[in-house]
Amino acid sequence: MVTLINRYNRDRHTQVLAAMHAARKRVFVDLLGWPIPHDGTYERDAFDDDEAVYLVVRDPATGTHLASARLLRTDRPHILGSLFPQLCEGDVPRGPDVREITRFCLAAGIGRTARLAARKQLVRSFVEYALMAGIRSYTGVAEMGWLSQILAAGWDVRPLGLPQTVGGCLLGALEIRITSQTLHQLAPDWAFEPTMMRVVEFDLPLAA
Amino acid sequence: MGQFEEVQRFVSAAARCRFPSELKDLLSDHACRLGFDYFALVHHVDLHDHDGEAIALWSYPAAWVDEYLEDRMATSDPVHLASHRINVGFTWDQIARLITVTPAHRRVRERTRRAGIEDGFTVPANIPGEANGSCSFAVATGHALPAASLPAAQLSGAYAFHAARRLGRKRARHPEPPPRLSPRQLDCIVFAGRGYSDRETAVALGIAEDTVTEYLDEARHRYGVSRRTPLVLRVVYDGQIALSDVLMLPPP
Fold it and tell me: Which residue from A146, A152, A161 is facing B4, i.e. has the nearest CB?
């Protein structure tokens, strides 16, 4: 089950949002050691504002957070535009049809099978949300070590500039184009089985 | 042309390649434009055993390629082994930081140098469920590694490998899909990989010891192996479980 959480329905999802911020703290601060703000329990930064949209994969029975990502508008301050514009050779892609994927987070300690299934659902929700909301491409800052796997997964991904070493990591800016064909092009490890029931629960209104 | 434009040109052209020979010419030209003399785009398998399945495109001197294949150097090539330990590009002088270099490794490096290949930069391409691979860019004796081109080579290496994978039959997948195992069976195999006995696995998973034994017996049968070590290795190789599951590393 994937829930889209935005400023209109966040008050009804405070528990799962708290679980997401706690999972983000465990993954990005404790495991990956990113130098980002946290209060010891939750990881939250200046981009977690009213305009942020979250896609959250939840256990259909318990509603627990299994995986999540934050989508940021690119016509406002966002990670690539505000913190890493130097990773783009040309202009930072901005516009109503471009969103930035940040804080892609799989809950730790839920087991391998559940983690892979959650990743598939989250990935599928990126594509479905893009198709519904008229998003043409996603941008993101990624560690370059993942590029081979992102390519092998079947994404139409292009570099936006040469990678650079930032804080010991080789980071690069990427753009992933989404079309109605994207779901069919994904490799089996990433594609969500069409036979499995999926629910994308949207609380209207979808966007501002 | 700036380096990024050169990479973009390569990325678009590589996506349009229809034959390995086209990709080889394209990559050879691209490597030169970035200031390298050679490239090698390979799956890390003994190519004697992988006729027509594995990727092997290179622009090294032909005599060196013959010698390398003849003496089956792929299995003790420190560049390959180091590339399994990391997923971003590395220069060959960093190898000693990635693996324990043995005399056999040193001999391969020494022979590579004698063949006129002085130094290089290797971009790993480790895709779950497939043989590991990499794309190396190298310079000839007397030439220095073009340090300013390494970020470009990082991108190009990943896209070159992707293009090679796409070129049909050259993929080093099993011809048959891997045997299907249940989630519970895979859990048992993860614990077997961590060195748990059947009894310990049973306690960890909260199931009967006999059930664990049964699951593992059946999995071994499906893979046609008689012991648990080859079973764990095969299941990891097929990407049904991740090495990080077995080693209990943080999830990717």
Answer: A161
Residue ranges covered by each domain of chain B: 3-170, 183-247
* One fold for B3-170 and B183-247: no
Q: What is the dihedral of CA A178, A183, A189, A194, to 10 degrees?
A: 150
B window 117-136, beta carbon within 8 A of A: 123-130
Identify how many contiguous H helices and E strands chain A contains and give both numbers.
4, 9
Query: Is the CB of residue B122 less than 8 Å from the CB of residue B92?
Result: yes
Task: State in words which class domain B3-170 has.
Answer: alpha beta
pTM: 0.79
Superfamily name with CATH number, domain A2-202: Gcn5-related N-acetyltransferase (GNAT) (3.40.630.30)
Q: Tell me whether residues A144 and B250 touch, CB distance under 8 A.
A: no
Using CB atoms, pick whichever of A144, A158, A159 lies closest to residue B88.
A144
Residue boundaries of the structural domains of chain A: 2-202
Which residue of chain B has the CA closest to A147? Answer: B158
Is the ipTM above a cut-off of 0.85?
Answer: yes
Nearest to A71 by CA among A52, A98, A88: A52
Reported as a single tens digit per residue, the pLDDT across B21-72 is: 899 999 999 999 999 999 999 888 766 655 555 788 999 998 999 899 888 8
pLDDT tens per residue, range B69-80: 888 888 889 999
Note the CATH architecture for domain B183-247.
Answer: Orthogonal Bundle (1.10)
Hey, is the C-beta of A82 within 8 angstroms of any chain B C-beta? no
Cis ω before B230 (30° cut-off from 0)? no
